[in-house]
Amino acid sequence: MYAAIEYARNGWSVIPGSVWDGHAYTLGTTPTKTDGLVPSMVSQRSYRNAREVHSWWNVAPYSILSRVAEDFDVIQIPAGLLATSIEFARQSIIKSPVVIGPFGARILVSRGAELLPGLWNDLGIDIMPPGVFIPLPPTTIRAGSTRWLREPSELNYQLGDQKAVQEALLEVQQLWKIQRVFEFDARSNSSVSDRFDSA
Fold first, then answer.
1. C-alpha neighbours within 13 Å on the C-beta side of residue 101
2. How far apart, in whole angstroms, are the C-alpha atoms of residue 172 and residue 151?
3. Are 120 and 126 in contact (CB under 8 A)?
4. First CA to last CA distance, the chain
5. Taking Cα atoms as reference points, which of 199, 196, 81 lies closest to residue 149?
6. What residues have CB less than 8 Å from 151, skipping those under 6 apart?
7. Which residues contact 55 (CB under 8 A, 6 or more apart)?
């Protein structure tokens, strides 16, 4: 509840979502099952008022959902690409709100983002479509939990600059590709060595 209230207080709209009970998603107020992680009410209304948010989450431990493109755009990247970004200290990424979960990493950036040429979708880099609901921490989902790379309060709830983040991702993408080639070569050489050793 407190996380949902803080998001609203800082200008991020939130939506009460279905709850993962360890076996299925339910409405939260009742054990009625839902079709996955979805808004718990038909209207799918977003809330920014802390008092309204409190009144909802005081009823049940709802998931915290946010609608993409309502307050921010979301760039989704693989976890390995985020790790490389951290390793090489790409500040525009590290200083953006980043949600980490079983899906990889989601960078919250200013609205109006369009994927720059050169960012490869086949590596799992993409801009999530408007209207999609994403879980904000500390929401638990079927595949596990969600958390922040850094708490939004440490960043004063400032969104990443979508252009700067994507330009950094272009650089990091090349570094990540090189790392993966080296790792593949190392595994291949190790495999060859093992075959000779066992001969």
1. 20
2. 23
3. no
4. 62
5. 81
6. none
7. none
Give the count of beta carbons closer than 10 Å to the beta carbon of residue 32: 12
- What is the tens place of the pLDDT at every residue in 139-196? 999 999 999 999 999 999 999 999 999 999 998 988 887 877 766 556 665 543 454 4
Residue 13 tokens read as 């709209």
What is the CA angle 114-118-121, rounded to 5? 70
Percent of the chain with pLDDT over 70: 89
The beta strands (E) that lie in the chain are given as 15-17, 19-20, 25-26, 63-67, 73-77, 98-101, 104-109, 126-127, 133-135, 140-141, 144-145, 147-148
The three-class DSSP label of residue 153 is helix
Q: 21 Cβ partners below 8 Å, 6+ apart?
A: 31
pTM confidence score: 0.87
Quote the pLDDT of residue 193. Answer: 47
- Strand (E) or helix (H) holding 80: helix 79-87
